[in-house]
Amino acid sequence: MQSFDLREHAPNIHKLLEGSRVRLFKGEYTMQGDVDWVVFDDMHYTREMLSDIPKEKRIYIAWEPIRNYKKLKRDFSRIYTYRSDMHDNVTCLPFAFPNLRAMIKPVNFWKKKLCVMITRNGTGLRKRVVRFFDTLEEPGFDLYGRKKIETSRFYRGPIPGCHSTLSKVKVNKEYRFSFCIENTALPGYISEKVFNAFHAATVPIYWGAPDVTRYIPQECFIDMRKFPTLQALYDYLQRISEEEYDLYLKNIEKFIRSSQAQIFSEETFAKLLKEM
């Protein structure tokens, strides 16, 4: 099997695939010898790349929500996606974002600022959150990203790298809460955002997959959908005691170590690649 470079999503994948028949590469692919499958990573392919590869040997991994299923079904024999509403166990098959990491040692509750948002895309909800905090005098909120998604005096600049980088952990760990707002709200669509917060010993404020509690216990995050206004959410964040906060972290750590969480591990993802 040969595949596009997956290291930005799963940095330990090379080590986990040692001794297997899976080979990873980056760049345009030309059919080389007798391979079982060619796995394409997201939308990084052209029709020219597919021309030498029989359809029955093409597999597609959708890291982002699928927007043109008919096109993918035309081009690939199997499609792996975390869109749970699309799984048919024939062509469209399940996988989960491999971003599970052990929790680091938490920063002291009283040394943490209140909340942070790290993002590079300005969705409507993210912009509303930024605008809300900008109306407050000293809210304990900071915004990081490659660019300002909204004019704000709390913008602190870019975070280098992508996905679950050490730089993001270093920022997240200094806050009690981290806004984890997905690009869209689709069943099963749980990206790296919530796991970045878990890894940094920060409690996620989550908005996204409507079925998130099918995968992650409610006790591990704050569900934005349960608050009628951003003011109500902010008031709740301010009221949380050290004891209540520590309980969130204990629940997160328990989940990370559980069998339920292992679908999000790199080991599970490596196993999927090996068994394709």
Q: Number of helix segments? A: 9
As laid out across the biggest beta sheet, the strand order is 2-1-3-4-5-6
Tell me, rounded to a whole number, the average pLDDT: 86
Oligomer: single chain
User: Could you name the CATH homologous superfamily of the largest domain?
Assistant: Glycosyl transferase family 10, C-terminal domain
Q: Which sequence of SSEs, written as H and E, runs from N to C?
A: EHEEHEHEEEHEHEHEEHHH
Task: Describe it.
The structure is a single chain. This protein has 276 residues and is of the alpha/beta class. The chain folds into two domains: 94 residues, no CATH class; 154 residues, 3-Layer(aba) Sandwich (Rossmann fold), CATH 3.40.50. The chain contains nine helices and eleven strands. The strands form two sheets. The protein has a six-stranded parallel β-sheet, with helices on one face. It has a five-stranded parallel β-sheet with strand order 8-7-9-10-11, with helices on both faces. The longest helix has 15 residues.
Describe how the helices and strands are arranged.
Blueprint: E1 2-3, H1 13-16, E2 23-24, E3 38-41, H2 47-50, E4 58-62, H3 69-75, E5 78-81, E6 92-94, E7 113-118, H4 124-134, E8 141-144, H5 166-172, E9 175-181, H6 193-199, E10 203-207, E11 222-223, H7 230-239, H8 242-256, H9 266-275
What's the gist of this structure?
With 276 residues, the protein is of the alpha/beta class.
Q: Features of this protein?
A:
276 residues; alpha/beta; Rossmann fold; 2 domains; 6-stranded parallel sheet; 9 helices; globular; disordered N terminus
